[in-house]
């Protein structure tokens, strides 16, 4: 949370010490006028970032496909299966738009009793959109939130994060992605200001030691394929402008800050809300694990949406799904801290359901093709201590 300290506070007599302190820093300009030295204008509530406050370390895999999410329709015996998986690091962000497409395809079969396989970001939004269109819906899933991968995400609007490789971002894909991103963005606007703040905007500060922006891109000589970056090209109008703060204008010492606004999802409240809405609308949930698509034959519904995320790799033998490991260190919430930070390749997100610290690495290849889920305490402490270092001044 910010506390702008400015001229208004000084003039209002906020305390002699403060005023004297400010006047001590005054200078005389060429015309002999006294000028106040610029006082800090931005005070960020102090973050208590220390390893002893870590409450959990979670690891999860992003379901990345080089060609982008799988959204085709497949006929499997008597079933029509609409695929809706493989959204990389953008599953929550694109969920409403992607699931709207899946819903249209499912409803095009004229069935009104539809099964959704999976209860993560894509399964929940598919199920709700089907209900809103008048369908009767049953979710079949081996796990429910908070025990699904979606519950272990960072919780930011990141619609082009590891969504596909650059060479797969054809004009047709860009059009598809833009539609999904815009529809999701607009749906999220309808979820602002609700009890428990499932969705909210935060200020985020990109912090550097020098005035030059650090970039998170592979070096030009890197022979690996580049991940597509689509936001600036296709939805720049949805990205708020940034504001810069130099040393002396904020409370984080000799650093350079660039502020922007980001949409954040408090995933515990949000997933609980989606699940609650689904049940309130008469939705049924059956805990069930499928070992092969042939198991779908046992379901009464003829039309299914497959939203099994990374699980589709084993279930459908989809080797195009590449795991991208990501680890979060969660910390005791601090309700007074309402801003996020990015510093030295570590991100901090002020989730109300537990602060989130994450080493994000040099580039989007960090964690690529790594499906190990053993938490690293050292990585968690590195993340917390890097951010904590900003407050040790
Ligand atoms: C560290 C990290 C940070 C991330 N941060 C963000 C972020 O800030 N913003 C963002 O938009 N995205 C983020 N993502 C990406 C996002 O989490 C995923 O894209 C998204 O969770 C995928 O959702 P899903 O519904 O497809 O899959 P899942 O959440 O994995 O859901 C799959 C569902 O299918 C079920 N299932 C799977 N296999 C079977 C089976 N064989 N039988 C029965 N049921 C099955 C599971 O139980 C589950 O219910 C992040 C990912 C990671 C790892």
In a few lines, what is going on in this structure?
By secondary structure, the chain is α/β, with parallel strands linked by helices. It is built from 9 helices and 16 strands. α3 (91-107) crosses α4 (121-132) and α4 (121-132) runs parallel beside α7.
Radius of gyration, CA atoms, in whole angstroms = 24 Å
Structural class: alpha/beta
Q: What helical percentage do the residues reach? A: 10-25%
Overall pLDDT level: 90
Q: Pick out the low-confidence regions.
A: 1-27
Strand order of the largest sheet: 3-13-16-15-14-8-10-9
Ligand inventory: flavin-adenine dinucleotide
| Terminal-residue CA separation | 19 Å
Shape from CA axes?
globular
Order of helices and strands: HHEEEEEHEHEHEHEEHEEHEEEEH
- What percentage of amino acids are in beta strands? 15-25%
Number of strands: 16
Q: Compute the number of helices.
A: 9
**What does the main sheet amount to?**
8 strands, mixed
């Amino acid at each position: 949370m910010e506390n702008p300290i400015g001229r208004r506070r000084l003039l209002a007599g906020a305390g002699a010490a403060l005023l004297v302190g400010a006047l001590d820093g005054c200078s005389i300009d060429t015309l002999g006028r006294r000028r106040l030295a610029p006082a800090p204008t931005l005070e960020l509530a102090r973050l208590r970032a220390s390893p002893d406050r870590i409450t959990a370390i979670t690891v999860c895999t992003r379901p990345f496909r080089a060609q982008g999410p799988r959204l085709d329709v497949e006929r499997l015996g008597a079933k029509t299966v609409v695929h809706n998986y493989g959204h990389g690091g953008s599953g929550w962000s694109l969920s409403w738009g992607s699931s709207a497409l899946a819903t249209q395809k499912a409803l095009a079969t004229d069935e009104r009793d539809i099964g959704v396989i999976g209860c993560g970001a894509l399964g929940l939004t598919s199920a709700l959109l089907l209900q809103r269109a008048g369908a009767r819906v049953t979710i079949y899933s081996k796990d429910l939130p908070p025990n699904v991968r979606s519950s272990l995400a960072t919780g930011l609007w990141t619609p082009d994060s590891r969504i596909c490789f650059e060479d797969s971002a054809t004009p047709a894909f860009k059009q598809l992605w833009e539609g999904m991103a815009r529809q999701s963005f607009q749906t999220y606007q309808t979820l602002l200001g609700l009890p428990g703040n499932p969705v909210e905007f935060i200020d985020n500060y990109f912090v550097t030691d020098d005035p030059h922006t650090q970039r998170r891109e592979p070096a030009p000589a890197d022979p690996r394929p580049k991940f597509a970056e689509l936001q600036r090209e296709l939805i720049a109008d949805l990205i708020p402008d940034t504001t810069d703060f130099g040393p002396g204008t904020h409370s984080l010492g000799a650093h350079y800050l660039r502020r922007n606004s980001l949409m954040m999802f408090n995933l515990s409240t949000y997933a609980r809300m989606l699940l609650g809405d689904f049940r309130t609308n008469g939705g049924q949930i059956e805990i069930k694990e499928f070992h092969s698509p042939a198991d779908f034959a046992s379901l009464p519904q003829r039309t299914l949406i497959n939203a099994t995320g990374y699980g589709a790799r084993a279930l459908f033998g989809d080797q195009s799904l590449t795991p991208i490991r990501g680890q979060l260190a969660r910390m005791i919430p601090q309700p007074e801290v309402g801003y996020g930070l990015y510093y030295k390749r570590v991100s901090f997100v002020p989730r109300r359901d537990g602060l989130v610290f994450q080493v994000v690495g040099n580039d989007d290849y960090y964690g690529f093709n790594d499906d190990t889920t053993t938490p690293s305490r050292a990585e968690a402490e590195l993340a917390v201590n890097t951010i904590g270092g900003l407050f040790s001044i």
